[in-house]
Amino acid sequence: MAKSLRSKAKRSSRRLKREEGTYAVHDAARLQRLNARLLDSNSNKDKIGKETEDKDEEDVVGDDEDKDGEEDDAKMSPTPSTTGEAKVSTSGARGSRRENWRESKGMKPRATSHGMNGKGKFVGKRKAGRPARRR
């Protein structure tokens, strides 16, 4: 009966599939890919660490600790200018699918109304007044 991701029946069946079912091959390949990626990233970190140690040994300065701290802070928080990515704005109006379709066809997103009401006046965007449907 239970359908949630945390249900014990679902978790146990997934565990069995992972160990002995057809999913086992797929899961093993996934684990191998992740392991290779982790090993590559760790080896890159080790190389970078060795290079910085060599530079520190060559440059004997009294404030080595302060310089290392500043470099670590710069590495930890890259600015958008250093990464080359422009900051994306997430604010503003989000068009509906209808508006997006109209824009793709070269039309205005919202059509202007050309009609008139019963009194001969132009129809507004919001049609206030007497309802058209009897209630």
From TrEMBL:
Domain DUF2423: start-end pairs: 1-44
Location of region: Disordered: 1-22, 35-135
Chain intervals with Basic residues compositional bias: 1-16, 122-135
A Gene Ontology term for the protein's cellular component: preribosome, large subunit precursor
Compositionally biased region (Basic and acidic residues): 43-53, 96-106
Acidic residues bias locations: 54-73
Signal peptide: none
Compositionally biased intervals (Polar residues): 78-93
Record PANTHER family: UPF0642 PROTEIN YBL028C
Protein name from the UniProt record: Uncharacterized protein family UPF0642
Organism: Phaffia rhodozyma (Yeast)
